[in-house]
Specification:
Length: 430
């Protein structure tokens, strides 16, 4: 009679299964992988099966010859047909527009010319249209194509939504065919007639807050300085050299002498947006990391200030300050932001103007909480520098930040809400 405290030593079915799977997945000869990699392909197993049938036909039974012939025919047709089909077609790819924004729907047109008299089936587009991984080695199939008639040119159109900024097609874009059996695929690069530049998406902001810390009002008028534009500051008697255009004729008639108006001088409103692209202070996720959101927030600020008539410049580790011409728009700036990549830089303090004094320029630095821990140890931050901080660590403290955005929450909503509150508070205090 067995004791009730005695446990059954037999292993469970799940334990045996786990051991078997672990043993089956173990790589006993990693050095030999390059020699047997072809076995991972369907054609590799067909070749092994054909060789086995050949041995059976030679030494065991003549029926093996029949199987050997059938497998050889399948292998031959499965390799030759895709190879011939790919060399009989020429492909041209184009987009219906030159530029788009993340999430926009873009029409892609693929024109395929078939030089053979017979139709071709089983074509597919590979690479260049993936949304999660921008690696050129990604061979994910983007779209499969229907039948292409013989001696004809056929246009295939589909809607594509790029979810990442960049230049599309990204990587190598190829046409492939594995028809009829799918045991081997033939590839050929296609001709790209036009490329698509995808801009970072922006957040619509409410207004522009008044600029504190310099001599500019919210409308860009220099305070307490006489000039020829703006509201009237005062009137005075005419002096030699004054322009007759600025004579106040009603006051001249009243005083019986020339009276000149002095007006506020319009300032050249300037803002410099610096985007921190140092990979050491960023978190990288699939399209939603702090690096991408720094670019999106910076692009939103650039667009908003530009629409309000400011002269905008932007800087990164790779780009020096480049003004955006109001007459030409900000197209070139957004083109650069579309292809911006992480760059390690050691000139952050100089690039952001830390310690410098500029009276009539507003600097906005878009960075992360990791950078702010370094900035807070610096002295002499200029009064015209503002920090928009993407908080990547919950415990970080950003006392010197202008705006602080939690990366774990809805970033566009936070930016809109905080920017609106900032504008309201600034105007109320003005």
């Amino acid at each position: 009679m067995s004791s009730p405290n005695k446990h059954n030593a037999r292993p469970s079915v799940n334990s045996i299964t786990q051991r078997f799977l672990s043993l089956a997945n173990q790589d006993f000869c990693p050095w030999a992988n390059r020699y047997v990699y072809w076995l991972k392909q369907p054609i590799g197993w067909l070749i092994v099966a054909a060789a086995a049938c050949l041995l059976i036909g030679l030494f065991l039974a003549p029926q093996g010859w029949v199987m050997f012939a059938a497998l050889t025919a399948v292998i031959f047709l499965g390799v030759i047909w895709p190879w011939v089909a790919i060399r009989g077609v020429s492909c041209r790819l184009s987009f219906n527009r030159r530029r788009a924004t993340e999430g926009d729907s873009v029409q892609v047109t693929l024109s395929i010319k078939n030089s053979f008299p017979w139709p071709i089936w089983g074509l597919a587009v590979e690479g260049g249209f993936f949304s999660e991984d921008l690696s050129p080695s990604n061979d994910a199939t983007a779209v499969a194509l229907a039948r292409v008639p013989g001696w004809a040119t056929t246009d295939f159109k589909w809607e594509y939504e790029p979810h990442r900024r960049g230049l599309y097609p990204s990587g190598i874009c190829r046409i492939s065919s594995a028809f009829p059996f799918g045991i081997w695929s033939a590839h050929d690069e296609m001709q790209i007639n036009s490329e698509l530049i995808v801009w970072p998406k922006t957040v619509k902001l409410a207004s522009i807050p008044p600029v504190k810390g310099n001599d500019l009002t919210a409308t860009g008028i220099l305070m307490n300085q006489a000039g020829l534009e703006g509201d009237v500051l005062a009137v005075r008697p005419y002096r030699r050299g004054d322009s007759l255009k600025h004579i106040h004729w009603p006051q001249t008639a009243r005083h019986n002498r020339f009276i000149v108006c002095e007006r506020q001088t319009a300032a050249h409103r300037r803002v410099e947006v610096s985007i921190d692209t140092d990979p050491r202070i960023h978190q990288f996720q699939s399209g939603n990391g702090s690096f991408e959101w720094c670019i999106r927030v910076g692009a939103s600020l650039i667009k908003e200030f530009h629409e309000h008539g400011w002269s905008v410049t932007y800087t990164t580790e790779r780009h020096s300050p480049t003004p955006t011409a109001l007459a030409m728009g900000i197209q070139s700036t957004f083109d650069n932001l579309a292809v911006l990549q992480p760059v390690v830089g050691d000139d952050f303090e100089e690039r952001c103007g830390l310690g410098s004094q500029s009276k009539h320029i507003l600097r906005i630095v878009v960075t992360t909480s990791e950078r702010m821990a370094e900035i807070e140890r610096q002295n002499g931050i200029s009064a015209g520098t503002r920090f928009v901080v993407l908080q990547t660590t919950p415990t970080s403290r950003n006392e010197d930040s202008w705006l602080t955005i939690d990366c774990e929450q809805d970033i566009p909503t936070q930016l809109q809400t905080q920017w609106e509150r900032l504008c309201h508070e600034s105007w109320s205090a003005a």
